[in-house]
Amino acid sequence: MKVLAVNGSPRKEGNTHKMIMKVFEALEKEGVETELVQVGGKIIRGCLSCYKCIERKDRRCATGNDMFNELFEKMLAADGIILASPTYFADITPELKAVIDRAGFVSRVNGQLFRHKAGAAVISLRRGGGIHAYDSINHLYQICQMFIVGSTYWNLGFGGRIGDEVSDDKEGMENMADLGKSMAFLLDKLNS
Ligand SMILES: Cc1cc2nc3c(=O)[nH]c(=O)nc-3n(C[C@H](O)[C@H](O)[C@H](O)COP(=O)(O)O)c2cc1C
């Protein structure tokens, strides 16, 4: 079983990354393979609304000149998907939004390719607006017939810049470990 996480933060080793690593630690303890793909800070276009994916139905986005299709193949191969983002003005980063719009469309027009996968949202924030960002990710899972994995609190972690990091949010990090355990539990049930 494999879980793919997509980091929407341009800060490669930042708070969102630390939270993902905590979830991975718990997943790996349960024997689940993990992989991280960085999209924050990379060039990834938004959906061009060309609707060629509907005509072609070839499980690809027609905009083939960026990292999207390679990432999409990894999403299809994974049993579970974690989409993670810092909160930017009470929402997710534009890079992650581009992934959601394009992956959601290509998945749906090709016969619900994400159907019955597990999905979790992971959000870091400094102060407020994290729930709105969290919802932005969960909307994708819900419309794609995926199973949403929660934890012992909403999947949020509080952290700012250097010196005010999410690693100091004890409850938030414990919550990430619990999220990993729950995701492993669900994947085991889905695959048995
Ligand atoms: C452009 C920008 C907008 C932000 N907007 C918010 C916000 O609306 N609410 C909030 O709590 N934090 C906000 N933050 C802070 C980050 O979400 C927060 O520090 C997060 O933990 C950073 O994660 P990272 O280290 O993975 O990038 C913003 C940061 C930036 C750079």
Automatic annotation (TrEMBL):
GO terms for molecular function: oxidoreductase activity. The keyword Flavoprotein applies. Residues 1-158 form the NADPH-dependent FMN reductase-like domain. It comes from Chlorobium phaeobacteroides (strain BS1). PANTHER family: NAD(P)H-DEPENDENT FMN-CONTAINING OXIDOREDUCTASE YWQN-RELATED. Keywords: Flavoprotein, FMN. The keyword Flavoprotein applies. This is NADPH-dependent FMN reductase. Coiled coil: none annotated. Pfam families: FMN_red.
